[in-house]
Amino acid sequence: MDQAQRAVMAQGKRKARLMRSAAVTVFLVSASLSVPVLMQAEAQGYSLSQVSIEGNQRVDAATILQLAGIKQGAAISGAQLNDAYQGLQNSGLFEEIAIQPQGARLLIRVKEYPMINVVSFEGNKRIKDDALGQVVQSKSRRAYSPAMAEADAASIAEGYRAQGRMAATVTPKIIRRSDNRVDLVFEITEGKAVEIERLGFVGNRAFSDRRLRQVLETKQAGLLRTFIRSDTLQPERLELDKQLLRDFYLSRGFVDFQVLNAAAEVSRERDGVFVTFTVQEGQSFNFGQITAVSEIEGLDAAEYEAALRVRTGGVYSPAVVENNIARLENLALQKGLTFVTIEPRVTRNERTRTLDIQFTLVRGQKVFVERIDIEGNTTTLDQVVRRQFRTVEGDPFNPREIRQSAERIRALGYFADARVEAEPGTSPDQVVVNVDVEEAPTGSLSFGASYGVSSGVGFNIGLTETNFLGRGQTVGVNVSTGTDNTSSSITFIEPAFLGRDLKFKFNAYYNETDNQNASYDTRMIGIVPAIEFPVSENGRLELRYFAKQSKLSNMTLAEDNNGDGDILDTDLEVNPDVDGSSPILFRDAAREGLFSSGVGATYSYDTRVTGLNPKGGVLLRFGLDYAGLGGDIESVALSALALAETKVWNEEVTLRAVFEGGALNMLNDENSRVTDRFFGNGKIRGFEPSGLGPRDLVTDDALGGNLFAAARFEADFPLGLPEEYGISGGLFADFGSVWSLNDTAGLNNVVDDDFHLRSSVGFSLFWTTPIGPLRFNFAKAMSKQDYDKEQVFDLTISTKF
């Protein structure tokens, strides 16, 4: 590089330094000049001597000034003017707002939102106008607010979403009217219901998709999707489904079960939803060693261990553990020991897949229930809610008992929602239990229809109130008619008679039959008051009194064929071709209307619902009725039923066995009447009602018997069809008989009342439909008598609407 080039470069560097220095100088000068200007703008204000308001019609000036936060004659800054504008804007009363300072005068010019003339809905079919009117906040004769109208549109769309119509759109529009009024119209496009096309599971090995779908509240769309609303997606229901899956698996020993995810995907056409539950089952555990120990000085745990009802080797279930904790706590209370807490300590054995449970008795914290506050029960009396608690004010506080009380309150069915929570009381050793409930409708008016191959078409109407006058009482009136029968009844139930766990029941009935599968008519009227109470964890006892009158009529009289003046004994043997009712029926009818009065008792033991075996249970029922407390009849009637059911093959198949029997014994050499005897109707399938048992072989009249016994074996199973169709199948085999009469004098050759074993086998088709459950029975009698009447096919349906 020569000297000339170096000189040029040096000159360029000097020019660059001069330009940077000039820029810095200009910036500093500008900044110093701008500070006073900004300070002056910030400090600028207005001294107002007058505030003028224009354009208001319904909102007075004082209200506008209050909303703006401006006072007459006060100084106001630019920031305060902005605040005043925001205050008026946020009031939602004005469509246009202008604030203009004019020297010492401030002008506020407003244009009010119009008044709503009417609110209407267009395009809605699935949800009626009345229901939509309760959803929206915009009302007639109120100021129109665009923000509120948009919120209302969103609420309407949410209502359609709850019905599965996710594509529904709602557009609020206004129609201008005179005098600053508008009609608010919500234009609705309902769209089609987006149904759940598939409920799937990922990660399940122990149970099939079919079995798990039975657990869920959400259902797949089926054949009758037009009538079924549970096949639409409701996100809040998915949370319930997750809990139902957890409870299902935990009750079967899967202690590590988790629902990892519940995803819902909408199809590309937006006409269907695919819901997938991703689960992690883990392994199933059984109960291992079960012990009880005490950490309370002087308290022997041997008696408590003897009270445990846990079977070593049985499938682990949290419900079993909870049940035994409650059992031990109750035992401690019976012994006068308070603040005894049972802690279940679990030892996990991975190799044997068992859980050792040690029920440890420890001294709990001394906390008492200060009071129980109940809110939200506008109809139901406090005492109805309070009697669901086993705890009262002043008792030791037991969190487990409070949770169980909450479950009992929800199980009443009187409330749409019930929350029970405990919070600290006025001192550290006290708590307050708050009960917050939301009332629900408890009355129902039902119209129904039924059909049976033998009974024909029938109709019924019923009025039932399960929380009568808010007292928790049930009152019901029911009237039903069939092709050949009419029945009516009145029912009253007091669930807490005398303030105790004592149920009082009263039933009155009036029944008539008109030649229903018989050659005679009947009329029966009676009353049955009863009390029912628990005698064990799953056992209940009912004690009752009954008074009834029965009458037979409209029988056909035969001729006196042997000339002895008595047409009720041997005439049929002389001329078996006569046309008349059985002499036994005439003898029954000759006694006119008989009145019977007596007492009875029924003991029932049922573990199907309250038991701890999730796969099945048993039902035992024993009844005894004595008639002879006055009246015209003295008799003893016995009845017994034993039912056991369980699920096998990964709970896909239900096996059921039922054994049933009854005996009627007349006292004082009296004869039983046809209205009191057994007919075995429905006990043995494959035979018509009154189609088996003692029969007059000449007149073909079914006479009924004093004894009956039946054994039924059933298996219910899926048919491989999609479960959303609600169709399943079953196989059955029935055995039994009806026999024994004590009034066959002179008719030994024409009346057969001996014991003859009947049996049948068949196939059942079950179809759960929105109009009611349908059952198709196809039966074949395998062993029978020549005079028995078979019924190969039977269809039953019953529904309420």
Automatic annotation (TrEMBL):
Q: Where in the cell is it found?
A: Cell outer membrane; Membrane
* Keyword match Repeat: yes
Domain of life where this protein originates:
Bacteria
InterPro entries registered for this protein in UniProt: Bac_surfAg_D15, BamA/TamA_POTRA, D15-like, OM_assembly_BamA, POTRA
Where does the protein principally reside? Answer: membrane
Q: Which residues form the POTRA domain?
A: 46-113, 114-191, 367-440
Record-linked Pfam families = Omp85, POTRA
GO cellular component: a single term = cell outer membrane
* Residue ranges the record marks as coiled coil: none
Q: Which GO terms describe its biological process?
A: Gram-negative-bacterium-type cell outer membrane assembly; protein insertion into membrane
Q: Which UniProt keywords apply?
A: Cell outer membrane, Membrane, Repeat, Signal, Transmembrane, Transmembrane beta strand
Record-stated family: Belongs to the BamA family.
What is the annotated role of this protein in its UniProt record? Part of the outer membrane protein assembly complex, which is involved in assembly and insertion of beta-barrel proteins into the outer membrane.
Q: How does it assemble?
A: Part of the Bam complex.
Protein's name in the database: Outer membrane protein assembly factor BamA
- Species source reads Gemmobacter fulvus
Taxonomic classification = Bacteria, Pseudomonadati, Pseudomonadota, Alphaproteobacteria, Rhodobacterales
